């Protein structure tokens, strides 16, 4: 069977987000952790390769992405998709622009779109400006992101700083006028020498319009939202029975736990909600990790007696001022690495204690956890909240994992996710 859509995601939770959207639209989807060392599964319609390339050096991000593309090309994928965050997480040097440039060159295409819009999670684009709810990106909590602070909401300007290609705009008036209007605008932009176009989108209907207009386009770059619009282009190749059961999985049973390394505003609220409900929580202190204290052992000893009848939360989530204080003391890279390593060791320890169902919050944390658990891939199941599905691991100990992007999920996410596994 030919894989229809081959996707490259720049972090682990973003990959899961995208894969969940594809499943929701009726495509059987598997997520691979890193560039696969073996042939891809053949019983799926789409493959998402999850990289850890969002915040590495641009040259490394390009190398990882091209390696993933080569694997997907060898699998015979019909179309390719570069997925980044719905808040366009990047810096002035990348990595969205450099990776897009490299993928376009390798595929021999002179045009693609860039559309991080995800209206269900309140990410919309109007006149090229990205909004988080009713707030410009540059005035949202993303302005304080410790690795990729987003201080400009004008995506044309943001992307133009990262690429040698000319960036243009497909504004909302074209999208509102339908598929043919979007295609006509693409034709005009190409004639003007534009090679990458930011696309406005305010609703799921807009994403369906944009997706249809991208039929046959070799490369699409976007957040996960456009994944709602692309599967319609493959309907003649999808089995109707498979479409109806794309999210049905048999989840492993076992003890439950929550790990949270994200410091996003959304995750801070989720951790606070969990604790306010009287549930057990253990805070990871990066300064104690740096001092050589056995924080991992303490966390596991604390969690062990709780697991039989409660769901413990182990978290490094903190407010921006606390994060900045730690980073000033330890350095940004060291602080992040210490937390990731600790969370990975805790996840391994919890698995040895019998945990088989786990929520992990934060892209970097999720990447560290799946690596520690020797997970090579994930089969994608039911959606918990927009962009966050339950999954079953491929490789390592069979587990049900929910890998949550820091910015995603409702306030009660940690509590309600379990009801889908009941």
Topology:
Blueprint: E1 5-9, H1 12-24, E2 29-33, E3 46-50, H2 58-74, E4 79-83, H3 96-107, E5 112-115, E6 123-126, E7 129-132, E8 135-136, H4 155-160, E9 167-170, H5 172-176, H6 179-191, E10 196-199, H7 204-213, E11 219-222, H8 240-244, E12 255-260, H9 265-276, E13 281-283, H10 286-290, H11 295-303, E14 313-315, H12 320-330, H13 332-352, E15 355-361, H14 363-372, E16 377-385, E17 388-394, E18 400-404, H15 413-416
Parallel strand pairs: 1-3, 1-4, 2-3, 4-11, 5-10, 5-11, 9-10, 12-14, 12-15, 13-14, 15-18
Antiparallel strand pairs: 2-16, 6-7, 7-8, 16-17, 17-18
Helix pairs in contact: 2-3, 6-7, 11-13, 12-13, 13-14
Textual characterization of the structure:
This protein has 422 residues and is an alpha/beta fold. It folds into two domains: 5-244, 3-Layer(aba) Sandwich (Rossmann fold); 255-421, Molybdenum Cofactor Biosythetic Enzyme, Chain A, CATH 3.40.980.20. 36% of the residues lie in helices and 20% in strands. It has 15 helices and 18 strands. It has helices at 12-24, 58-74, 96-107, 155-160, 172-176, 179-191, 204-213, 240-244, 265-276, 286-290, 295-303, 320-330, 332-352, 363-372, 413-416; strands at 5-9, 29-33, 46-50, 79-83, 112-115, 123-126, 129-132, 135-136, 167-170, 196-199, 219-222, 255-260, 281-283, 313-315, 355-361, 377-385, 388-394, 400-404. Strands 9-10-5-11-4-1-3-2-16-17-18-15-12-14-13 form a 15-stranded mixed sheet, sandwiched between helices. It has a three-stranded antiparallel sheet with strand order 6-7-8, with no helix packed on it. Helix 2 runs parallel beside helix 3 (96-107), helix 6 packs across helix 7 and helix 12 crosses helix 13 (332-352). The chain is globular. The relative contact order is 0.15. The mean pLDDT is 93.
